[in-house]
Amino acid sequence: MLGEYRIEGRRASEIAASVERGVAAGELQPGQLLPPMRELAVGLGVNPNTVAAAYRTLRERGVIETDGRRGSRVRPRPATTARGSIRVEAPAGVRDAGQGNPDPALLPALGPALAEAARRDAERPGMYGEAPVDEEFARLARAALDADGVPDGPIAVTSGSLDAIERVLAVHLRPGDGVAVEDPGWGSLLDLVPALGLRPVPVAVDDEGPLPDDVTRALREGARAVIVTDRAQNPTGAAVTARRAAELRRVLAAHPDVLLIEDDHGHGIVDLPLHPLAGVTDRWAMVRSVAKAYGPDLRIATLTGDAETFDRVLGRQQLGPGWVSRLLQRAVAHLWATGAVDAAAVAGSYARRRDGLVRALERRGVEAHGRSGMNVWVPVADETGAVARLLGAGWAVAPGARFRMSTGPAVRLTVSGLTMDDIEPLADAVAGAAGPAPARSYG
Question: What is the Cα–Cα distance from 443 to 440, expressed in whole angstroms?
């Protein structure tokens, strides 16, 4: 049943740890059947209740699943994600305020940057064995991090934020480990955590970021990693304030062995200062994607962190894709060096539309959140009904189910495709669709 792998232990915690070691080492494969509890108890010379307690712990940690008489199996990793399919396609004649894309008018022209990268490649073509990170890219990325007070650390490049977060989680955690995630939070991340065999632990957020008491609870419940969005949180627009950062640092300082991952994908599109948490724990990573400010299809993110995390991520990356295209790195470095994006102007453009929509909704008695970035989060009484009514009124929005775990129903509105003339008509439609505000909807 288990091949050559032998489960060991006398106590429930030891038995559970033995199974987890087998899963982490690949000696127990997804879908593999475990021994019946009584059979394993006899083999180990322990009470069946001890094995039952071990299996219960493994189920709670997401390592195994039980199907009645069919027994217990190592939990398979899902082949596909679920939240990405929770979307509303905008039919002809309907305005799309749900996709979450940046405003194309605010993205820089890539032609000159790509041409410069191609020119440099013609002079000295990129080959195997070269450094994975372009020197100019690393210099500019590190200077921007230094300016925002991010602790010193080497620079790696990944194919976007989610790729970076996956790599950091994978090199430090094992199946069943808990990961504190924002709720509501980024739908792709909420899918990624269980896809890695990890256990998401929801943490409530308000306009200033994750709630310290909820982070404390998650850590007490055994979360071994915490993921925080510093600014332009998706979907709520939350941004960590100086006060909240100080509170979170105090919480994290009591758990120095916890892995901290910060996502600053809003860099370049927000005008609020960064208040980094990095450096409080022994293991940490800071991720910055260029997707929102320079274009999603560039697939470039900067990653820095402590030396151990960096070495593990870089070593594993070299055994897979090897590196992210240095042509694209040089193109991004050219965009940075030439000031192709006026961050203040971009932030101001999004802020005028976002703040205008939030104020318009508030005037209509509708609760709305959007402190930074390009999204507005609106709690509703009936999510399905609100989405349907808005579609009937000519607006496609994102259902809140894509972004929440235990948080109440809501919809997400993206302002990127709006003009100022759209604000009042959209606010009217949302007010007509939202219904009475839930008693406790957010934070």
Answer: 8
Under the phi-then-psi rule, with left for phi > 0, alpha for psi from -120 to 50, and beta for the rest, what region is 56? alpha
Scored b (16 or more CB within 10 A) or e, 326-341 reads bbbbbbbbbbbeeebb
pLDDT at residue 439, rounded to an integer: 55
For the chain, helix, strand, coil in percent to 5 are 45, 15, 40
- Local structure of 201: helix, strand or coil: strand
What distance in Å separates the CA atoms of residue 277 and residue 102, rounded to the nearest whole number? 27
Tell me phi and psi for residue 369, to 5 degrees. Answer: -130, 135
Instruction: Give me the helices (H) in 149-232, please.
Output: 161-172, 187-195, 212-220
- CB-based burial of residue 125 (10 Å sphere; 0-12 exposed, 13-18 middle, 19+ buried)? exposed
Token couple for 244: 């909240």
Distance from C-alpha of 168 to C-alpha of 290, rounded to nearest angstrom: 19
Question: In 3D, which of 145, 140, 135 has the Cα closest to residue 286?
Answer: 145
Amino acid letter for position 402: R
CA dihedral sign of residues 168, 174, 179, 185: positive
pLDDT tens figures, 179-223: 999 999 999 999 999 888 898 999 999 999 999 999 999 999 899
- How much is the CA Rg of the chain, to the nearest whole Å? 24
363 burial (CB, 10 Å; 0-12 / 13-18 / 19+) is exposed
